[in-house]
Amino acid sequence: MNLEQIQEKLIKDFDFKKVINILDKLNENYVKEDLINNIKGLIKMAYLSREMDDISFTSGHFIINRSYYEGEEVQYDLSFLLEVNSNLNYELEKPFETKNTNEKELLLKKKLEELLLININDYEEDSNNYIYEANIQRIERMIEILD
C-alpha cells in the first residue's frame, strides 16, 4: 500500500465524532479537518521512517504505531489518548547492584569509602596536615572511577 491508501484507510475507520465529543467536553475546540491533517502528518512520519523496528510517533492526543514482522509491514495503529499521570521518585535505601559490578569491586569501593571517612575525620582534627587532604582527593578520584 502507498501512503495515501494507508492514510485513507486509517482515517475512514477512525471515529472522529467520538474524539470531537471528548475534546469538546475538555473545552478544546477542534474541527474534523484539523484532526485529519494532524493524523495525516503522523501517518506520513510513520510511513517514511526507515526504522525496521516497531515505531511510535505522537502529536497532540494522537499516537501512530507501525509494526513490522520479519521485515514486512504488518500493522498501523492510530489511537486517541488522554493521559492522567501520577509520578513518585524516591531514593532507595540501598542501591541495586548492577550485573557489571563484581563482588571485588563492591568490596574495594566499600573499603575506599571507609578509608575516605577516616582521612576526613583526621583532616578535621588536624587541618594543617596536607597529607590527609591529598589522600582525600586521591580516594575520591578512585571512588569516581569505580562508579
Summary of the model, kept short:
The chain is α+β, with helices and mostly antiparallel strands and 147 residues long. It contains five helices and three strands; from the N terminus they run H-H-H-E-E-E-H-H. The protein has a three-stranded antiparallel sheet, covered by helices on one side.
The total domain count is 2
What's the β-strand tally? 3
Helix count, per DSSP?
Answer: 5
Question: Which stretches are low in confidence, meaning pLDDT under 50 for 5 or more residues running?
Answer: none
Structure write-up:
- This protein has 147 residues and is of the alpha+beta class.
- The chain folds into 2 domains: 3-80; 103-146.
- Helices cover 52% and strands 15% of the residues.
- The chain has 5 helices and 3 strands.
- It has helices at 3-12, 16-25, 32-48, 103-125, 130-146; strands at residues 55-59, 62-69, 72-80.
- The chain has a 3-stranded antiparallel sheet with strand order 1-2-3, with helices on one face.
- A hairpin with a 2-residue loop joins strand 2 and strand 3 (72-80).
- The longest helix is centred in the C-terminal third of the chain and has 23 residues, at 103-125.
